[in-house]
Amino acid sequence: MNDLAQEAARLDAADPLAICRSEFLIDDDLAYLDGNSLGALPKAAPARVAQVVQKEWGEQLIASWNDAGWIGLPQKMGSKIAPLIGAQTHEVIATDTTSINLFKLISAALAMRPGRKQVLSEPGNFPSDLYMIEGLEAQGLAERRLAERGDIEAALDENVALLLLTHVHYKTGEMFDMVRLTKAAHDVGALVLWDLSHSAGAVPVDLNGANADFAVGCGYKYLNGGPGAPAFAFVAEGHLANLQQPLSGWMGHNAPFAFEDDYQPAQGVDRLLCSTPSVIAMSALEVGVDLIAMIGMGPLVEKSRALSEFTRAAMARHVPELTCISPADPAQRGSQLSFRHEHSYELCQALIARKVIGDFRAPDVLRVGFAPAYVRYADCARLVSELRDILDSGEWQKPEYAERGAVT
Ligand SMILES: *Cc1c(COP(=O)(O)O)cnc(C)c1O
Fold first, then answer.
1. Which residues carry this modification: N6-(pyridoxal phosphate)lysine (predicted)?
2. What is the pTM of this model?
3. 308 lies in which domain range?
4. Domain total of the chain
5. Last residue in a domain, options 294, 328, 355
6. How confident is the model at residue 301, as a pLDDT?
7. What is the mean pLDDT of residues 251-255?
8. Is 13 inside a domain boundary?
9. What is the rounded distance in angstroms from the CA atom of residue 256 to the CA atom of residue 314?
10. Do the beta carbons of residue 125 and residue 80 sit within 8 Å?
11. 34-87 tens-digit pLDDT
């Protein structure tokens, strides 16, 4: 174990991104391996939010819609997120939540494939992705079909309107081949919607390169936008002119301030808007996205793979009773590793008590994420040595570690 800590110290010393951790407000003794669930707080965010609240809202009040550029925040944030996911700036908008954007885009896709009702996904996809299809099914607009990931290509046929997949699986970290599956869907005339919640800011994504139709993603995971941060949505340029979405709120109107009785969708991706932008949340998101853009996806991806490889090897060697269920090839997984153990929940609680933060996903998965902007090799080494100690000492059996909170 000493060797492991020494190796980690050597890698941290040589890490060109080590300096980036100081851009986040995060205790030095905290091994935070849960940035895939809630990204850390960028140091510049509190001051930025305070400025928006005290100055732009407190002093300048309603003038800030124009003067502080509030009204353009969804487009501005869309254009900043676009290069991180291989999209053009006018194809992405930041608005609403991932779940709501899923609803809008599943509906839009169904409207573009009249005569087809099936939305194909995989069992075990993120709950909202599956539930949103169900919601449309209850209205008679969609038919949900599920195929195990190995059977998806075989399940694609001319009844499928839309293939809806999460690029990096939230529980296992498995990553789909976006190019191959997008092409397979297009070959049967289906559209594709990618959920990038565990991809944006963590793995290479090239939506245009893959010829993807639609995408959604989360602002509060690797983009560090803060709890409940606005999400983003992508529509390929070629679909923008025909896109119809059912949440036809006034902000998606072609001329919101004409206050007309009849809805006319805005030009381009703006038609995905529904409501007034959440300005304070958007300002926090901007700080998070700016940081990720400044560091750059190339270096982030490289470090993410190095961190997860270091951890995978160390876990296999020192804690073999936990079974890694993430793909062994870093090119086939996201920036996380998932391990199966009968007592994963208790192990996770015992780790948290030692300031090593991962998370638990039912029924038996311990999940650790590597947000490459601030995770250190030393954090990964600590995960391994603390786990070894927790198992050897039996500390995980303490009754308080079996109690479950509302959020796990
Ligand atoms: C986190 C996550 C979401 C979050 O949806 P919200 O509407 O923001 O709660 C959606 N999809 C996936 C795959 C996620 O991992």
1. 221
2. 0.98
3. 2-32+297-402
4. 2
5. 294
6. 98
7. 98
8. yes
9. 56
10. no
11. 999 999 999 999 999 999 999 999 999 999 999 999 999 999 999 999 999 999
Same domain, 250 and 202: yes
Residue closest by Cα to atom 5 of ligand 1: 98
Per residue in 87-146, pLDDT tens? Answer: 999 999 999 999 999 999 999 999 999 999 999 999 999 999 999 999 999 999 999 999
Active site residue 220: yes
Residues 245 and 319 reside in one and the same domain: no
**Which of the following is catalytic: 21, 116, 312, 367?**
367
Q: Show the ligand 1 pocket: residues with CB < 6 angstroms.
A: 97-99, 126, 128-129, 166, 170, 195, 197-198, 218, 231
Q: How far apart are CA 358 and CA 353, in angstroms?
A: 11
- Assign residue 378 the CATH number of its domain: 3.90.1150.10
- CA-nearest residue for atom 15, ligand 1, is 197
Q: Which residues pair with 162 in a beta bridge?
A: 119, 191
Nearest to 72 by CA among 102, 93, 49: 93
Distance CA 219, CA 40 (A): 12
133 C-alpha vs ligand 1 centroid, how far in Å? 14
Residue 15, marked binder: no
CA separation for the pair 197, 158 (Å, rounded): 28
7 Cα: distance to centroid of ligand 1 (angstroms): 35
Going by their DSSP bridges, the two strands 336-340 and 323-324 should be labelled as antiparallel
- 358 and 263 belong to one structural domain: no
Q: Is residue 361 part of a domain?
A: yes
* Active-site residue, from 21, 171, 221, 312: 221
Q: Is 396 annotated as a binding residue?
A: no
For residue 16, the CA-to-ligand 1 centroid distance in Å is: 31
Residues 226 and 275 in one domain: yes
Give domain status of residue 407, yes or no. no
Task: Report if residue 126 sits inside a domain.
Answer: yes
